[in-house]
Amino acid sequence: MKTMNQSRFGSIGLIGAPNAGKSTLVNQLVGTKVSIVTHKVQTTRSRVIGIAMHGDSQIVLVDTPGIFQPGRRLDKAMVSTAWREAHNADVIAVLMDAGHHKRTKDELLILKELEKRNISQKVILILNKIDLLAREKLLAIVQEFHDTGLFSEIYMVSALTGDGCDALLADFAKFVPEAEWLYDEDLISDMPSRLLAAEITREKLFQQLHQEIPYMCTVETESWETNEKDEIKIGQVIYVIKPRHKAMILGKNGQKIKTIGMQARHELIELLEQPVHLNLFIKVKENWMDDPERYQHWGLEFN
Ligand SMILES: Nc1nc2c(ncn2[C@@H]2O[C@H](COP(=O)(O)OP(=O)(O)OP(=O)(O)O)[C@@H](O)[C@H]2O)c(=O)[nH]1
Ligand SMILES: [Mg+2]
Predict the structure, then answer these.
(1) Which of 37, 85, 298, 300 maximizes ligand 1 atoms within 8 Å of its Cβ, making it the mutation to test the pocket?
(2) Which residues line ligand 1 (CB under 6 A)?
(3) What is the pTM of this model?
(4) Nearest ligand, CA of residue 160?
(5) Strands across the sheet with 153-156, in order?
(6) Mean pLDDT for the chain overall
(7) Alpha-carbon dihedral of residues 16, 20, 22, 28, nearest 10 degrees?
(8) 150 CA distance to ligand 2 middle (Å)
């Protein structure tokens, strides 16, 4: 840990509507995948941190679930986690998808909440996905947000291509207060391996399954053993609410779950740099979304 006077340390809470690109940005700034990304909304379900270094600064990037009008208990827990993390951060960075012109319902909701809430920190705006639109259109959007008076700075980036991301990180490094680093210089996240492994499987479920099915699932790592050959044996449970969902995840002749398991295993091998055996079990648990234990696992508030 660094003790020199000028060292800086702090957190940037990234919030935004589902699919704005928060997780992609965290991964881009860290330089490695720490948070799962899919083209579907509501991918991130809990707080995930990525740690980035810049000069004398150690910056904790806090990825959060997308903010939207929540319905289910799980949705409410996700949205309240996002706001909680925003309030806890040194700086709040609001991510907006600049790829569409008209503000969506969720984006307007976020702007309204920002006005309403008692926020003492610096709040900045990051317009993401600038690779998708022409410069003139972008400037009109910047003006629109500038006029809200909510943001002290406005940045334009593409989390996907990395455009504008170096300058953003350099400013984050200045925004965080003078303080000692909390983490080891090489650390990129604080997520325990078991959780990360469960997230990877959940990402594959999101990518492989259609419509509502992935939203009705959760994944937990139940066992983790290293054998004498230095191979890791991981057992995970996929909780679903209906036998029909179980059948869909299994797929014809078990093909679907085989694909999901294979993709997750490959990513785990790369991540852990060790041989991995991954066993997936599907359990039907009709009420897992009303079971506090399932929330505890992910650091989500159960209300
Ligand atoms: N073209 C383009 N696509 C992007 C960019 N950033 C993210 N995406 C895509 O947008 C989709 C959503 O990205 P995520 O990073 O999962 O978004 P998120 O805000 O974390 O979403 P939730 O976790 O669901 O709230 C993915 O398909 C990304 O590849 C960008 O700068 N340009
Ligand atoms: Mg995300």
Answers:
(1) 37
(2) 16, 18-24, 37-39, 41-44, 65-66, 128-129, 131-132, 158-160
(3) 0.95
(4) 1
(5) 48-54, 57-63, 8-16, 91-97, 122-128, 153-156
(6) 95
(7) -150
(8) 23
Q: What local confidence, expressed as pLDDT, does residue 302 receive?
A: 87
Express as a percent the part of the chain with pLDDT over 70.
98
198 and 236 in contact (C-beta within 8 Å)?
Answer: yes
- Give, in order, the Cα–Cα distances in Å from 137 to each of 102, 140, 148, 152: 11, 5, 18, 21
Domain 8-175 homologous superfamily, CATH: P-loop containing nucleotide triphosphate hydrolases (3.40.50.300)
Q: Domain map of the chain by residue range? A: 8-175, 193-296
Q: What is the pLDDT of residues 249-303, one digit of tens each?
A: 999 999 999 999 999 999 999 999 999 999 999 999 999 999 999 998 888 988 8
Q: Return the CATH architecture of domain 193-296.
A: 2-Layer Sandwich (3.30)
